[in-house]
Here is the input.
Amino acid sequence: MKADILIKHATIVDGTGDDRFQGSIAVRDGKIARIIRQSDGHEGDAGSAEEAREVIDAQGMIVSPGFIDTHVHSDLMLLWDRQHASGLQQGITTELLGQDGLSYAPLGKDNLAMYFQFLAGLNGAPDIPLDWSTVREYRMKFDRTVAINTAYQVPHGALRLETLGMRDLPLTGKSLEQAKRLLDQGLKEGAVAFSTGLSYYPCSYSDTEEMVELCKVVADNSSVYVTHIRTVFREEPIDPVLESIEIAERSGAKLHFSHYRTSLPKAGRVKEVMEHIDAAYERGVDLTLELYPYPSGSGYVVIWLPLWCFEGGFDALLERLADPKQRPRLIEGIEKNTIPVGGYFTNLPNHPQYIGRSFREVAQERGQSIPDMLCDLLLAEKLQVGYHDSAESMFDEASLEAWDRFNRDCLELLSRPYYMVGSDGIPLGQNPHPRAFGTFPRLLRFCREYGFRLETMINRMTKVPADRFGLKNRGVLKEDCAADIVIFNEQTVTDTATYQLSRSAPVGIPYVVVNGKVAVRGEKVTGVFAGRALEREG
Here is the structure.
């Protein structure tokens, strides 16, 4: 039977971590139909050119499984920009949505409309129909309608909104039981994990006991608790890493830490940063982690507002921002935030003149303090204000050594078998963080520049996340597995996105195949929508 695609003369890195080999791959009906190694006594062709509708000569190229982005914020923009070049051109064929507890199902009509506005600074506010309520309905919005595979995590924020609203109380009693039922339903409707962002509201209103009880449901479903650790504390500060480990040990849930690595100030201090996690791993806690290879982050500006002002939700927050009597208290709360206030604007639809400029520069131009300026812009933009936190000192000549240490830290962490890759990409605004466009090719470049074993890196980008999140028949190149495939040039692949030109596409990745369809050809997206909504299996 004629193959749909024949990839010949390939250097195959199959995702298992084993050594590369020469061979060819035939793709038929969305799956890998045949793989032949040259070492099998064949020339390495899984079929002849006459037997395939399309032949790709991969001479001098690496052929690997499609990359799995374990942390990304394309929950709405993927339904708006269904081609999703920012991910595809990196070689990403699957993205995990529902991160940090900040997504949109399960939610009733009113809560969905409110959360859509509340999270606009993070996920945008595209003109799409909000016509779902359950996890299954939301997941199916992405099935065969977008260019990339998706998997979904039940978000903690949605559970809290549906059961208690935007209130500064932990879930207890009836509200907790209702949240547990919704979580169980979502996991049974195909979600691959439960996520929380304990630095974001309403997730931050929780306490440890609430998280333990919810994670017992996760354990009952053999699923994963994915955590953005706490930076907001209801009472006395606690060690957020130890809290996460306690939640996992008491509930029995598998644990996954989001975007956990060193930083420029802590570059070279992997042992210190990993102390509690290494100890937990050694005593048998089932845990994994992911990272992105940039020392700065990105997000939405509302994170600096104090805890009390979020009660009541979107409309109540705008009223407080507009009330002159409330402004001094808001400013005081921003100044006392545990996260230092600073960054560069990435998204302000009504103030494009501020894109790419620092908080300090814009505040000086407007004749305001930074907290006062942020309050005014949040009000004017109805919360749709994004930022990245790269500091000017990151680009000083003196910081080059710290950058090098940080890069080496990322590779040291990825040498551990329980680490994987997540871009934390936010594909929103005119000048978003470059991680949304460069994470995966950047790490492939690091392999070349630092001598890191490519087979190990590919394993962390493919099989490790597929196994962790139950994505059956994904993450490896084996017969009968899904034909999610990346073809790249090991010697030239690199990221080109910078903090100044963040939407610049990578180079050296000429082909990407999603479910047997060529989604990238000649480094350009092709326009096919072959993505499937994946669910946890096993």
Residues 32 and 479 are 5 Å apart (CA to CA). The two ends are 32 Å apart (CA to CA). The mean pLDDT is 94.
